[in-house]
What does this fold into?
Amino acid sequence: MEIFITAIGTDSGKSIVSSILTEALDADYWKPVQAGYPTDTDTVHSLLYTPKEKLPEAYLLEHPMSPHAAAALENRVIQLEDIQLPKYTKEHLVVEGAGGIMVPLNDENMVIDIPQKLGLGVVLVSNIYLGNINHTLLSINELKRRGLPLVGIVFNGDNNEATKSIILKHANCPELFHLPTLEKVDKESIYAFANQLKENLRTKLFQNA
It folds into this structure.
C-alpha cells in the first residue's frame, strides 16, 4: 500500500502522523518535495523506533516557504514529471506532502497533483480549531472533484465530537485515529501510539484503499 499524507493547512501535524503511520505499517517514508531545514525526512526518522533507510527527496530546497517560491529563489522550477515513486521500498510506503493540498509547486501544479499523478490514496490530516470544518470540507470537496480516493482522516488536537461527526458525514471515509496533544514527542511515544492502533489502523486502510 502506498498512501499520501496531506492536510488542510500548514503545521497541521503531518510529520507526526507520518511517523505513526510509518511505524504502524512497517512502511518506508518519502518526502518528495522539501522546502527548508531541518528536513521532514530527518524529523520523521528521528521519531522511528525501527531504523529505516532514508529515501532522497525529488526536490530539496533551502528556504522554508511554499515550494514554488523556494524553488524560484534557487532559479529552479519544480517539474511534476520529475517526481517518481522510489524504485526500491518496503511493501508499504508513506508519502508526505508539503503544506496543505493546494500549496503550489509551480505556476500550474499544486501539491495535490502529486498523488493524482502517482495514483496514491490520500490520508487527510485535519487539526481541530475554530474554522477547521470549513477548511476540511473544502479540502474534501477538492479531492472529490479530482476523483482522488480519500482513504481516511486523522484528527489532530483537542477532541470535538460535533466537529468530527459533521466532517465524517461528508467525507465518506473512516476516521483512522485521533491524535491528541502528546505530552512528549519522541520515538518511544510514537512507537507506543503506533503499536496501540496498529491492527485497527491496518483494517481501516485496507478496507478503504
